[in-house]
Every structure is written in structure tokens, then in C-alpha cells.
Automatic annotation (TrEMBL):
This is ARAID factor. The chain crosses the membrane at residues 125-146. The keyword Transmembrane applies. Keywords: Membrane, Transmembrane, Transmembrane helix. Gene3D superfamilies: Ribonuclease Inhibitor. The keyword Endoplasmic reticulum does not apply. Residues 108-119 form the EGF-like domain. It comes from Pycnonotus jocosus (Red-whiskered bulbul).
Length: 156
């Protein structure tokens, strides 16, 4: 994805849809900052070129090789932050596993068969019960409103 020399002052909001990008060039843009959340989900990104004034997202530790030339910084080989010997600042809760979520970013995914907040519920989500209750409540409320508001409708 070549976004070089596009007069970007900030990371475009549509960039979040390009998470499958492997190579991204942001050089020759007057960018002032690269918020780390801008690259959330970019797990396939292997080469990122940014203006020299900016650091690589996630820091130099998030990349295998960081090189500089006269006008740009090249961040290559995104590292998996879950495979480092350094303990994570926010370890994943019990019954979950760490997964990369972009340069220097992680996400915690629940191990099977756990789900829910902090992966504390075991089994499967009760989809049938949830859908039944939600559907019943929706139909009941719709019928109630239709019955009470019907008299206010004017007939021609």
C-alpha cells in the first residue's frame, strides 16, 4: 500500500480497513504522530516505511530490523510480542492465550471451551436461549406498542 507523498497530516481513518497489508509506505508525508491504535489488527504487516521524524509503531522492539536513511525509517519484520522473554505488562487472564494484534500490540483470546468476560464462563454461549428471550421481548413490545398506538392513527 503506497501512501507516500500524499500530504497526510495524520493517519487516514480508512487505513483501519487495510489490515491485510504486508507493505506500507507513509514516507514523504508531514505526519506528526503515529498513534499505536492506528495499526490495530495489522498482523501481516512486514515492512513499514515512515518519515524519519517518527518512530516505528510499537517501538524498535516490535520489529526485527529498523534502518534509517536520509529521509525515512524502514521497519521490517514485525515481531510477535507474545513470544518474548520479557513478561507482558498486561498478562492475559487465566483460560486465555496471547495473540498478536499489530506492531507491539496483543489481544487475549479465550481458550476453548471458555468465553465471556475474562474467559470465566465455561461451555458455549447459550445462543438459543439468548435469541429466544430477545425475540420474545421484541415481539411482545412491538405488539404492545402497535395495540396502544393504533388508535392514534388517522383513517382516511
Amino acid at each position: 500500500l503506497d501512501l507516500s507523498n500524499c500530504s497526510l497530516h495524520s493517519v487516514p481513518p480508512g487505513l483501519t480497513e487495510a489490515t491485510a497489508a504486508i507493505v506500507l509506505d507513509l514516507t514523504e508525508n508531514p505526519l506528526t504522530a503515529l498513534p499505536s491504535a492506528s495499526f490495530l489488527g495489522f498482523i501481516h504487516l512486514q515492512s513499514l516505511a515512515v518519515p524519519l521524524a517518527l518512530e516505528c509503531p510499537g517501538g524498535n522492539d516490535a520489529w526485527q530490523n529498523v534502518t534509517e536513511d536520509t529521509s525515512s525509517r524502514l521497519c521490517q519484520g514485525q515481531r510477535n510480542p507474545c513470544n518474548t522473554s520479557v513478561e507482558l505488562a498486561w498478562p492475559c487472564p487465566e483460560n486465555s492465550v496471547c495473540a498478536p494484534d499489530g506492531p507491539g500490540l496483543i489481544q487475549c483470546l479465550c481458550d476453548n471451551p471458555f468465553y465471556g468476560y475474562k474467559c470465566l464462563r465455561e461451555g458455549t454461549f447459550p445462543m438459543l436461549l439468548f435469541g429466544g428471550i430477545l425475540g420474545t421481548a421484541t415481539v411482545s413490545l412491538s405488539l404492545l406498542l402497535w395495540g396502544t398506538q393504533r388508535r392514534k392513527a388517522k383513517t382516511p
